[in-house]
């Protein structure tokens, strides 16, 4: 087994992880970044950068196709594959910026600080040792003075409806769709749900339904913000289903029937082609050996940290896994 030693080891290369690595580098540390998935994490791929790029493209198309400004463009037609290609290109450019920085600051002879990336899945062996399984099966043992856990989060699964990546999807599957669905039901009216409702409605190819279990969208925001978002969604044609819950999804072969139970007792059956589950995200705490370092998971599924974002001696947490705002 290859054995490497660093001052700091950061698990995860997303916004929190890469920021922690760069800040450690600023303090003259030899830093290792461990990444098992996409460079840049969900902040770049299937996350904020991707969805914001989609939103910008959808907004441009919506403005170009308006007919109330004294002119009308002809022949405008969005292409889903080309849109996703543009999104992936934007994500790829950011990933190569990160990789370029890592290579620029890679370890050289007699250097007093450096950045090194190891691709693979890391698991704590003890509080000073991380065992990495690389994609080719090779093992690497990382020893460090300090560790930063920044493994991020994943889409929350629906308790009864399982995703298949094709007709019942979450935000990780958006780039796998083959075309704009004719009809979509978005389950969850939080920030991500409202964002994708806006994106699909702006392109004008999809009849968008948004399921809101409460009486307002983005319920954790102030009333005026929620009301404004709700108004704008309705203006672009999003069909709102307030105070309703998802009872069942039935595969009817050529379409899906979504059964909604409203709080006043009536039931609505909505035919769609795709169901997007968007009910939040959960911290990624599995399979990283937290039991080996005495870490505590809170009722919300977060890593318990102190006021200095410390999980245990020599181990810290940042980003979604720690609750976000306090430890970013």
Helix content: 10-25%
Q: Tally the structural domains.
A: 2
CATH architecture level-2 label of the largest domain: 3-Layer(bba) Sandwich
- Which structural class do you get from the secondary structure elements? alpha/beta
Which geometry do the CA atoms define?
globular
Mean pLDDT: 94
In the predicted model, the low-confidence regions spanning at least 5 consecutive residues are none
Number of helices: 5
For the CA atoms, what is the radius of gyration? Answer: 22 Å
Main beta-sheet annotation: 8 strands, mixed
CATH superfamily of the largest domain, called what? FAD/NAD(P)-binding domain
Strand percent estimate: 25-35%
- The CATH class of the largest domain, by name, is Alpha Beta
List how many beta strands DSSP finds.
Answer: 18
Order of helices and strands: EHEHHEEEEEEEHEHEEEEEEEE
* CATH fold node name of the largest domain: FAD/NAD(P)-binding domain
What is the terminal separation in angstroms? Answer: 33 Å
């Amino acid at each position: 087994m290859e054995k490497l030693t660093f001052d700091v080891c950061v698990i995860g290369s997303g916004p929190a992880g890469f920021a922690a690595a760069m800040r450690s580098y600023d303090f003259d540390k030899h830093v290792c970044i461990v990444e098992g998935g996409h460079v840049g994490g969900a902040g770049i791929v299937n996350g904020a950068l991707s969805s914001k790029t989609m939103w910008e493209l959808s907004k441009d198309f919506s403005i170009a196709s308006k007919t109330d400004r004294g002119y009308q463009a002809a022949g405008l037609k969005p292409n889903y594959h080309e849109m996703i290609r543009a999104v992936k290109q934007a994500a790829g450019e950011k990933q190569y910026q990160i990789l370029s920085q890592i290579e620029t600051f890679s370890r050289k002879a007699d250097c007093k600080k450096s950045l090194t990336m190891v691709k693979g899945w890391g698991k704590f062996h003890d509080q000073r040792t991380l065992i990495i399984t690389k994609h080719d099966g090779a093992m690497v043992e990382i020893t460090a003075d300090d560790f930063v856990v920044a493994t991020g989060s994943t889409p929350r699964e629906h308790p009864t409806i399982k995703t298949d990546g094709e007709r019942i999807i979450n935000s990780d599957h958006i780039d796998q769709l083959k075309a704009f669905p004719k009809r979509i039901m978005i389950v969850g009216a939080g920030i991500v749900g409202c964002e994708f409702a806006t994106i699909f409605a702006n392109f004008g190819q999809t009849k968008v339904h948004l399921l809101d279990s409460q009486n307002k969208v983005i319920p954790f925001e102030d009333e005026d913000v929620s009301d404004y978002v709700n108004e704008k969604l309705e203006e672009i044609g999003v069909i709102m289903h307030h105070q309703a819950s998802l009872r069942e999804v039935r595969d009817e072969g050529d379409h899906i029937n979504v059964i909604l139970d409203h709080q006043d007792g009536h039931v609505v059956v909505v035919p769609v082609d795709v169901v997007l589950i968007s009910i939040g995200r959960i911290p990624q705490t599995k399979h990283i050996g937290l039991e080996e370092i005495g870490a505590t998971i809170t009722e919300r599924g977060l890593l318990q940290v102190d006021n200095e974002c410390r999980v245990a001696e020599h181990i810290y947490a940042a980003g979604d896994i720690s609750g976000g705002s306090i430890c970013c």
